[in-house]
Design brief:
Length: 114
């Protein structure tokens, strides 16, 4: 459809998004931004990312993953026009990302999985 998809490399819904985007006609419309380095990712994620043309490593290995993820999410918001989040109600990091997206005036859609 011509829309660029930005996501992080986390397991779960991000993995599903990456797999779906890789099946699309134009894989160059997928960018995966990692809060840490590729080396820090689980083996399953590293293997999947071998097929992705555009992987950005923010390299925040010295930070706790929760804080590195917040920085990564802010980076993702800076690149996008819309935000679609699949979350659980107890996901504080994603709740903060949703609020940041709204504060930026983005179209925000949240789908709760619980």
């Amino acid at each position: 459809s011509g829309n660029h998809v930005y996501t992080s490399g986390a397991v779960g819904t991000h993995t599903a998004v990456i797999r779906g985007a890789l099946r699309a006609e134009d894989q160059s419309l997928l960018t995966v931004i990692l809060p840490q380095t590729l080396r820090q990712q689980p083996l399953e994620t590293r293997t999947l990312l071998e097929s992705v043309e555009q992987v950005v490593e923010l390299g925040h290995n010295d930070l706790p993953l929760s804080y590195a993820s917040r920085l990564c999410n802010s980076e993702l918001l800076g690149m996008a026009e819309q935000l679609i989040v699949f979350a659980f109600h107890d996901s504080n990091t994603l709740k903060e990302t949703v609020e940041e997206g709204k504060a930026r005036g983005m179209l925000v859609t949240v789908l709760y999985l619980d």
